[in-house]
Specification:
By secondary structure, this protein is α/β, with parallel strands linked by helices. It folds into 3 domains: 271 residues, 3-Layer(aba) Sandwich (Rossmann fold); 126 residues, 3-Layer(aba) Sandwich (Rossmann fold); 91 residues, Rossmann fold (3-Layer(aba) Sandwich), CATH 3.40.50. Strands 1, 2, 3, 4, 5, 6 and 7 form a 7-stranded parallel β-sheet that branches. The protein has a 5-stranded mixed β-sheet with strand order 8-9-11-10-15, sandwiched between helices. Helix 2 packs parallel to helix 5 and helix 13 packs parallel to helix 14. The protein is elongated. The protein starts with a helix and ends with a helix.
Amino acid sequence: MTLSDASAVMGAAVPLDPALLTRRDRAELLRYMTMMRTAEERALSLYKQGKIPGSFYDGRGQEAISVGAAFALSPRYRLCILHRDLGAHFVRAVTPDRYLANYMGRADGVTGGKDGNLRFGDRARGCVGMVSMLPDMALVANGMAPAMKMRGEPRVALTFFGDGSTANGQWHEAMNFAGVRRLPVVFVLENNRFAYSTPNELEFAADPVERAEGYGLPGVEVDATTSRPCSRPCTRRSSGRARAAARPWSSARRCACTATAPTTTWATCPPSCSPSGRRATRSRATRRASPTTSASPPRRSSGSRARSAPTSPSAPSGRSPRRCPTRRSPTRVTDGFAAEFGPERVLDTPLAENAIVGAATGAAIEGMRPVCEMQFADFIACGFDQLVNVAAKLHYRQGQSVPLVVRLPSGGGFSGGPFHSQNPEAWFLQAPGLKVVAPATAADAKGLLASAIRDPNPVCFLEHKGLYRHVRDEVPEGEYTVPLGAARVAREGGELTVIAYGSAAPLALTAAEQLEADIEVLDLRSLCPLDRDAILASARKTGKVLTAADVPIPFSPPLEQEILPQLDDMKEACRELLAY
């Protein structure tokens, strides 16, 4: 049976029989699992000999999960593979010699020595490399899925994560985002019962399978000690459900795959695989679903019935749908976008910054060019991990372009206080892989934004809120770009150079004009890359340099005005330097 045939069966809600696995399929599954165990044993030996630097992680007892899930899906389906899922890489044609070379930090490893362990990927093989912050890739999968959905492609994204990840807030953001947006994602929880070193009872209070229901994702358990339920019958059924109903799937251990709505896949390793399990096997009551059941999701051991999946993202189970009058950002810059371009292109997302940036990263990996907006620049702190550790490093680690733009309404002047008035550009100037842009005029904002969208790298696009209301500018009609990394001489002069960007640039220009002095104003426009040539040329020309930028902002209006650079402050500083 071909994958398309299997998809058709799953779309029709016909249970898949393990007999769909041919004799050759079973031999291949065993070969990949044996290859994984052998390669990891060899790597462990090299690690003990000191030939592998850093740390070492293996997937002992989890071979069937990674091999079975990857074996069921062709390379056109995206996999976000974690550090214990070597088998999935082998299924996707990574060879043992390249795996071992990567662990050893050699030039012939997958990343060429830029990263170690299993933190590698290959887009041509449909694999996206992990980062060490383990829940992060679930958010990336959430971005690849809507890109597939928008293009009408019958594909899904599959992401692995461990039981330790479920205690992290990003895991919640990922599950909630996928449930709300009805995304074609398969989530595979590999529950080894001890995460890195913490047993389940100290990791979470509620059973992970039952927790899935709270996100509108019925959970199904599969036996992680065999690859059969982890392979075609489970993963293909999961992916078919996710595509057919445009809903995420989730599954776990020892339960037949009988839920009729898409779910998330939870896979639990046997207790004997964990350190604590080797000493004592913990009993756990689990209700098995009948192989012939197809009317409703299985009941849980607690006796509560799994709720059916929501039928609409706007009407969660048990709630009445409410109409939202309009999609509007606090700055109203994007007003009317949803009406003009439609809700499939203008996404009204949950208030979860990591989920937003992670989804944008996944969409960029899939060839889209997303533009995401923080309500206030301050809130990017909540999405820092996805922006700095995932998006910014993908090109360095994998050669993967991530063309996304994060719009950041920044700056004070409106009594927003210390959480709505910050200028966070300095946070990102030292982050390799990011570009930072701060326009001072409307014309530059249009041209720089066009360039930022076309750029293959993640770009932080700072828009000072004071410029929205206090600066008027002629904007050229039609399409044009302003190159990133090119400063603008806003005013020629020969006695003093004022270097500024954002809201400080028009302030410096006004001060120079009112002083009627020979002052040159250099508007940086881009902070990274920085136009060093323009800075040095202007400094050599005038011999005197004054820089201007904003600072942390208090709430009280008098204090805020005292702290913010004012026109008189700028003029006084210019007079002092001119007289020097």
